[in-house]
What we know:
By secondary structure, the chain is mainly alpha-helical.
Amino acid sequence: MEIPRTIVLEEDKPQEFVVPVKCIHEGHDVRRFLISRAYRDIMVFVLQLNRAMFPRRSRSIGEQLIDIRSWQLDSSAVSLSESTQRLQGLLTDLDAVVNEIPPDPGPRRFGNVAFRRWYETIEARLPSLLQHHLPEQVLSFKSSSNVSVEAELRSYLLGAFGSAQRLDYGTGHELNFLAFLGCIWKLGGFDVSSNGSEERGIVLGIVEPYLRLVRRLIMTYTLEPAGSHGVWGLDDHSFLPYLFGSAQYGPAIPDTAETPIEGSLANAPDPADVIKPVAVDHERKKNMYFSAIGFIYDVKKGPFWEHSPMLYDISGVRAGWAKINKGMIKMYMAEVLSKFPVVQHFYFGSLFSWEEDPDAVAPPTTVHGSSQPVKTQLATYDLPIRESSSDTTNGPRESNSAAASTPFVGTAAPWAKQPSVVSPTTAFPSQADHRNISQTPRLPPNINPRPLATAQTGGQPATGMPPQTRVPWARAPDR
C-alpha cells in the first residue's frame, strides 16, 4: 500500500520564494482555503506524522505478535537525525531567552507584557538563529526571486509562539509551527528515505520540545487562550498532542498496513485514566496525550469533568486509542482547519500556497462551512457525547426577530440539541451504530442523577436534600 507523503522539491530547480501574506479575511474565505494547495499539504503532513507514531510489528506467528516497537517521550529508541538535533538547538536557544526576560511583577488578569519583550528579542535574533540552526539543505536552496528562504520560513516561526499584541496563544499558532516544519521537509531538510523514523524524530524530538516551550511561555507570561471555546472546546491551547499521543497507544501495525481505526496497544492505559491524577502524572512522562492532560491539571483546578467535559467524554471511548485517533483527525479538520477564528491568521507563501488544488473537490455546504463566521452549529465526532434531552429548554434559545439579524459567533455546547443537518466531514457514526458508543450519557464517577424538584416537594429535590449546583448537562427542572 502506498502511503501519501509530503512532496520534496527538486533541489536543482530554484524556488520562487515569497513573503507569506494574509488571504483569509472573512468567513467565506475558509471555503476557498479548504480547496487550496496549502490545506492539502497541511493534511498530508499531519497524517504522515500521525501514522509514524503508531507502534510497529515486524511479523506475527498465529495469534502471537513478535517484535513490537513503540516509542515514548525522551526514549533512546527514537533516532534523531542531524536536522532534528539542530532544530532542537533552536528551541533550546528560544527557551533560554525566557530566563533573560522575567515576567513583570504584580498580579495581572490578562497576559504579562514582558512577553512582548521576549517576542521582540527573538524577532531581532531570528536571522542569526535560522542561519545557525536550519539544515544546510534548506539554507542552500536556490531562490529565483529576491526573497530568501529564511524570509519565508521566518513568518511561520514567528507566528508559532503566540500573539505579542493580544498576549495569547492557541491552535492557530500551533498550526504555524507545523507549517514551519512542513516547509523544511519540502526543502529537503529531513531524511525522506527513512521508513517513518524521521517523522517520529520530528514529533518526539521537535514537536514535543516545542510544546514544552509553549507551556513554559503560557505559565511564565500568563498568556490567554486564543479563540478558546472554554469548556466546550477540546483544549485551551493545543491540539496536536492529543492526535499524536493517541497514535502512540494505537495497535501495532506492519509498515505497509493502513492506519488502524480501532484497537489499542497491549498494556496501554485506559482512556478513562485521564481523571486519575496519579495515573496522569505517571503517563505524562511517556505519552503526548497524557502530557497535555497533565498540563491541564497544572493550570486548572476542580473536577476534571467540569473544566474539561469534552476530554472527559472522550475518555469513555470503548473501541480503543485508534478510535480516539480517528476522531481526533476529523476533529482537527473541523475545529481547527475549518474555523475562521483559527485559520484567519495563517499566512500563505510559495511553500504553503493559496492556489487552488486542481484535484480538490469543492467542500459541501455543511454546518462548519456555511456558518462562517456567523453562527457555529454543533459538530459531532467519532467520540462519545452526552445525549441531548427531549426537553427543548436545555437547547439553544430561539432568537427574536431583532437578534436574528445580528451574527453571533460561538460554538454550540456539547449538550445542545443536535442540528438536523450533519456534515459529511463529521466523525460520528450514525445513531444506529451502537457498537462502540454507549447509549447513556457519561456521568462523573460516584455521581448519580439527582431527582428533580417538583411542585409537590416545594421546589426541593424529592430526596429532601438542599438544592445543589447542577452539572452543565443536567436537565433543567420543570417550571
